[in-house]
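Morning. Coffee machine broken again, so started the prediction first thing and wrote up yesterday's gels while waiting. Chain of 219 residues, entered below exactly as on the submission form.
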Amino acid sequence: MSLTSSPRLIKGGLVVLAPGGGAVRRTIALQYNPDSLSRSYQVQGVGGDGGGDRAQPFRLKGPAIETIKLEAEIDATDQLEHPESNANAVAFGVGPQIALLEALVNPSVDEILAVAAAAQNGTLEILPPEAPLVLFVWSRNRVVPVRVTEFSVTEEAFDPSLNPIRAKVSLGLRVLSTDDLGFAHKGGTMFLSYLRVRETLATKAGAASLASIGLTNLP
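Came back before lunch.
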């Protein structure tokens, strides 16, 4: 047995819960953590945009709309070196992993057929079934409900049956806040916990002095 001083690397990934935040249906761990992860915020403000509200102090009417984008790699090369214990990789390459991510942006066939049957039976207003609740997990301190808004995949290196051996996946995620889910929904509770963790983290940054930014006092 070899010993190493390197810390164990925790993988990022997605957790799929039953609609409403019920039982865990599936955990999707990234095979390799991406080298970068981008986040952007759309501020939800009231006033300060000109017009009749020009003199109104700037107010935040709700949490900023956060968007997360990342690129992940999937590779079956290592599994194919041991075909006797990786039958799915031999038969399908990375196809199953791609299909698993595709399921996040498509309703199931049964759900599509149920909607079609309701329409044929004369139902005037058909509400699509609530989708599973998806959590983006990036360490235990960053667990947040999201909706997949973008998904693209570039398949590479095909086997003789044209199954992809490698793929690059791009994911766009929109964080779901209490504005989207409400306060009673489990996802809304998780969002508040996520926001609380970020607030606590901000307190650990320390305070800069006015002198550090070239001021002795405010005008």
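Residues 186-202 form the longest helix (17 residues). Going to sketch it on the whiteboard this afternoon.
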